[in-house]
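If you are new to this repository, start here. Below is one unmodified record pulled from the training split, so you can see the exact layout before writing a loader.
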Amino acid sequence: MRLSEERIAVLARGIVDSLLDKELVDLEIAEDRFLFLIESAIIQDLKLEDQIDEEATEFLRKHNANLEEGSPEWEIELDRKREDLAVAKGYVIH
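And here is the target side for that same chain:
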């Protein structure tokens, strides 16, 4: 994961505070529980993106051995494979 737990907690708190300040949500659960759910959603999203990256890298290593890892061609093919995997999983890469 590219973000530390501390950074995720700060981001989640910012999201919760913003939603509550702008009265965009009407909580029927405790604020701490809502914060936990936002943190969990961020972590789940980041883990899925990491999984897609790993799968795309492994695919290229197995099926495109002629590409030098880290080369511009590798990066282009890696981006394509990431996008294909993301679409298949119903995920939008950010």
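Two things worth knowing about this chain: Residues 5-89 form one domain. The helical segments are 5-21, 31-63, 72-89.
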